[in-house]
Amino acid sequence: MEVIVRAGDSGGAMLRTQGCSKIVKNVFSGVRCVSSSSAEEKTFEFKPLLGYMIDPPEAVTTATEAVLKSYFREMLRMRRMEIAADVLYKGQFIRGFCHLYDGQEAVQVGLEAALTHDDCLITSYRNHCQHLSRHGSIKKVLAELTGRKAGCTEGKGGSMHMYDSEKNFYGGQGIVGAQTPLGAGLAFALKYKNKPNVAITMFGDGAANQGQLAESINMASVWKLPCIFLCENNRYGMGTSTLRASGSGADFYERGSFIPGLKIDGMDVLAVREGMKFAKKYAIENGPMYVEVDTYRYHGHSMSDPGVSYRSRDEISSIRGSRDPVDRVKARIIDAGWATADELKAVEKEVKKEVDEAVKFSKEAPYPEPEDTFKDVYTTPIQVRGTTSFNGFVPA
Fold first, then answer.
1. For 132-160, b where at least 16 C-beta lie within 10 A, e where not — what string?
2. Could you give the residue ranges of the DSSP H alpha helices within 99-225?
3. What is the mean pLDDT of the chain?
4. CB-based contacts of 60, cutoff 8 Å, min separation 6
5. What number is the average pLDDT over the span 59-85?
6. Beta strands in the chain (DSSP E)
7. Around 37, how many Cα atoms within 13 Å sit in the side-chain half-sphere?
8. Rounded distance, CA 28 to CA 11, Å?
């Protein structure tokens, strides 16, 4: 028996089986599921990808019930964690800068679904969910945000500098665009060591205007480095719309000029997964690619930015209602008949419990000791020159 779930223009979706039909509620236009009689795997279509100097992959893929449910849970964990960070910040448990990722979860979950932890990842200061996706824990992320020794960098890095080189995650960078030449360097190391892997250097639409990005793309092209320059276009560089700050207009994927580009719907985890699989294969075999994911952040640029002085609340609500990445994968699961809304609600409760426990932990864990300030400055003790021959440091 063939089952087809197709989104209609009016926002409803039609479920058609042989000899019967009924309407399935679905607010996400463009969601379509086609399956055979097997319950193991179904085929999904997504918004077509756009290619520059290259033919993009077909906008169709398959997924199992277990895979889609795992994406739903992981994206929900990210969403809940970032909302918890918002509350902790407003309660003054988190100090300094704090850049949240809610709204952009499909980018990271889809990206990691296309990679392995042998692939290198480096990003900007909006890096909580990147650390979590590399087998980090919500407890360690929130403890780092509150400056506790149990944090992922022992309370020293804070919001902008999470890091785990054992998982090939080379952290968040506080300087706009600074990660782009480092990402090219990671790709150089992979090629030098003959590794069959790729380096992902993530940056925002604001950093896309940086000169160091252009230099990095040029070097990566000359040396055919396995590097993907991944632009997370969330529509606003701080408080400035890309339409006001970009000479190339709304599209960034053509900015590589002499390297291929790909534009992906960054609010659809399956589109991101398939696009990044394609980009990874290309980069390993041919050299760098510029990938743009069209996404959206719900919070302001940082916690000091209310996010509504340069865009309307209606705009944010409209994106939430029509493109929300968590709700989109949830709708696919329900439309495919793999779970009911109540069953997925139980998952939401489980995730909420996990995050609540992490919040409690992050408030109660001890702070670093004062002497910890002088640890991890250098990997090994080295001689440090002073202003005279007497005030330097010579290791024993």
1. bbbebbbbbbbbbbbbbebbbbbbbbbbb
2. 105-114, 128-133, 138-145, 179-192, 211-222
3. 87
4. 43, 44, 45, 46
5. 97
6. 3-7, 12-17, 20-25, 32-35, 41-45, 50-52, 60-64, 120-124, 169-173, 199-204, 227-233, 236-237, 240-241, 261-265, 289-294
7. 2
8. 7
CA distances to 206, 281, 376, 380 from 396, rounded to whole Å, are 47, 50, 17, 12
Q: What are the structure tokens assigned to 279, written together? A: 């980009």
User: What pLDDT does residue 39 have?
Assistant: 53
Confidence of residue 14 (pLDDT cuts 50, 70, 90): very low
Query: How does 363-393 read in b/e, with b if 16+ C-beta sit within 10 Å?
Result: eebeebeeeeeeeeeeeeeeeeeeeeeeeee
Region of residue 171 (left: phi > 0; alpha: psi -120 to 50; beta: else): left
**Residue 25 pLDDT more than 70?**
no
The model's pTM: 0.85
Residue 255, burial from CB neighbour count under 10 angstroms (0-12, 13-18, 19+): buried
Inform me whether the pLDDT recorded for 151 exceeds 70.
yes
Percent of the chain whose pLDDT exceeds 90: 70
**Site of tokens 């000169």:** 211
**CA 131/CA 127 separation, integer angstroms:** 6
Cα(38)–Cα(384) distance, integer angstroms: 67
Rounded alpha-carbon distances, angstroms, from residue 279 to 209, 237, 287, 311, 321: 22, 25, 10, 32, 30
Residue 385 is predicted with a pLDDT of 78
